[in-house]
Every structure is written in C-alpha cells, then in structure tokens.
Design goal:
mainly alpha; globular
C-alpha cells in the first residue's frame, strides 16, 4: 500500500532528476521528525540548565537577573510547533550526503574548539551545544539512514523511533515549563521531587548532555564517512574529494574560532554559520552536484530556524563571557600601575 501511495507522488516525469528523492519520502519524513525531536530535547534541556545556573548566580551577582530575564522568553505553543515542523521538513528534504558533510564539519569544529578553549571550557561547551542544534538533527538523520539501510521494513523501524522521539521531546518540554513556572517555589519549600532532584543534581545536566552528544556524533561520523564514500567509484575520486574538504575546513575552522573569541555574541555565531555553509557551497560547486548546492541552501534555513529562536540563550552565555573578560582586563590594569611605583621608590632609595 505504501508503494502505491508513493507512486502517486511527483516523480522524474514531472520533476528533474536532481529534485527527486532517492528513497521513500516517508522514510525521509520520519528521519526528519526524529532529528527535530532531538533538537527540541537539546534546546529544552539547555534552557533548563541555563535557568538553574542563573538561579544559582542570582544570590551572588545582581547582574545575572538581567540574563535570567532572557531565559523567560520561551516560545509560545503555536510558534514552537511551526518552528518544529519547519525544521522537520528541512531535515526531511536535505540529502544524506550534505547532512553527512554538516556532521563532519561540526565534529571538526568541536574538536578544534575544545582544544583551544583552555580553562574556560564550561562556557565553550554551553555555546557549542547551542550551536549544534541543526547538526544534531543531521547527525540523527545520518545515523538512522546508515543503520536502517537495506532493511525490508525500514519505515516501521523509523516509525517506532519517531514515536519514541516524540514522547521524549514532549517530556522535555513539560519539564521546561514546570521548571520555569514552579522551580523557585518548589525548591524553596522542598516538596516537589523533580525540583528537589534538579536542585541537588542540576549541575550534572551539562556533562550528561555533553556525553550524549559525544556518543551521538561518534556514531554519526562513522555513518557520514560511509555515506559519502558510497558516492565514489574509485579511491582516486574519494581522494580528490576529501583532500580539499579537509584542508579548506581546517583553515576555516581555525579562522572562525579566532573570530568568535574576538566577538563572543549571537551575531558572531550567525556570521560563522554564513561563512561555514558558504565555504561548503563553494566546495560543492567545485567537486559536488547541483543537488548538494540546493540542499546547502536549505541548510541555511535550517540553521537560522534553530539559532534565531535561541538567540536569547546565546546572548545569555556570551554576556557572562564578556563580564569575565572585562573583569580580567580590570584586574590587569590594577596590577600594572603598581610596578612603576615600586620601581620609583627603589630608585629614590
């Protein structure tokens, strides 16, 4: 029955070959749904983590109340659903080849950024998790495409995965609404099990997310390399593709890391998205196909639909970085004038 329904969809008789999907459209839709649910879970848990962090800082720093105000600007129900289904459609249309490139690019950027982050790795991990939303969706889509490739009842497996992902996303959203509305009251009176658990073990939420994403991208990198190598007939073609990709993205990642350290704000993140995907588009124009170029253009929309609603979280994390940076500068300026005064006293003696 599914084959009959999919046969009624537009095929190569009506559309060019580079606009048609290579597999069942239902499989792509379910993979996109799983990826969108993963993005929703990540965003909800990051909002919970940042809210708990700002609550812990509220007694120590009065300026944190300004950042905490950004956390209360959550999406309404209708806007959140529109954004959710829009991301689902983008992930469903983007091909596995371009999604694999997005996964490999993010993995390279994450490793290089973690190496150069230094002692301020906590703030870097927060910003990295917020920037990884669309990449997480691509990672889940690539992993599902790789794991269920060749399965006889692939759509049933993907349907089960989509149902479980939807349930997990709904639970994470409910947790976010509960924490935002009742955490202050319940944590002070200590009669809610959820809020007491977050009050006790809330600091473990960020390491748990980091470990989960590490496992997710470890599987996705293996799946991405396998998916990309399927498009090459010989080792020479694969070498011609991987060599410029590795060189260009290594240089690009180093450049973007320096730019984000100079200007740690949401605007710098958006500029980094444009530069990264623009470089990937130029590379695909050289060694790729027209289908890849079209999918990269859709990745721009996917990145924007994930980052714009969470701009308040990016500003909240970057504001703390700017405060720490200004405090370090003030400390250096306070220490510098002391040295010439001590030298003058020694010359007078």
């Amino acid at each position: 029955m599914l084959s009959f329904l999919t046969s009624l969809l537009p095929t190569s008789y009506f559309l060019p070959g580079w606009l048609t999907l290579d597999t069942n459209p239902l499989n792509h839709l379910l993979q996109g749904l799983v990826g969108a649910c993963g993005i929703s879970v990540l965003c909800s848990l990051m909002r919970v983590h940042l809210f708990l962090e700002e609550q812990s800082w509220s007694d120590k720093d009065a300026s944190s109340q300004k950042a905490a105000g950004h956390q209360r600007e959550t999406k309404s129900g209708f806007t959140g659903m529109v954004q959710f289904f829009f991301v689902t459609g983008i992930l469903a249309v983007v091909g596995s080849r371009v999604a694999s490139l997005v996964v490999l690019e993010f993995s390279l950027r994450a490793v290089s950024g973690w190496v150069t982050a230094g002692p301020d790795s906590g703030r870097f991990l927060q910003q990295l998790l917020l920037q990884s939303q669309f990449s997480v969706g691509c990672a889940l889509s690539c992993s599902l495409h790789f794991i269920h490739e060749g399965a006889s009842q692939r759509w049933l497996c993907l349907l089960l995965a989509a149902a479980l992902s939807w349930l997990l996303a709904r639970q994470a959203t409910r947790l976010l609404h509960h924490v935002m509305a009742l955490y202050k009251l319940h944590s002070s009176q200590q009669y809610c099990g959820i809020c007491i658990s977050l009050l006790t073990w809330g600091r473990c939420l960020l390491p748990m997310l980091c470990r989960t994403l590490f496992i997710t991208f470890s599987v996705a990198v293996i799946a991405s390399v396998s998916i990309i190598n399927q498009h090459f007939l010989s080792a020479t073609e694969a070498l011609r593709f991987w060599t410029p990709l590795t060189i260009c993205y290594t240089l690009l990642v180093v450049y973007m890391q320096e730019e984000q350290h100079r200007q740690p704000s949401s605007q710098a993140v958006m500029n980094a998205v444009v530069v990264r995907l623009g470089g990937l588009m130029v590379l695909m124009l050289t060694v790729g196909h027209w289908t890849d170029v079209l999918h990269i253009l859709m990745c721009f929309l996917g990145e924007a639909s994930c980052l714009i609603p969470t701009k308040d979280l990016l500003d909240a994390t970057s504001s703390r970085d700017e405060e720490d940076y200004t405090e370090n500068i003030k400390r250096e300026h306070r220490r510098r004038p002391q040295r010439p005064q001590t030298q003058e006293k020694e010359h007078q003696r």
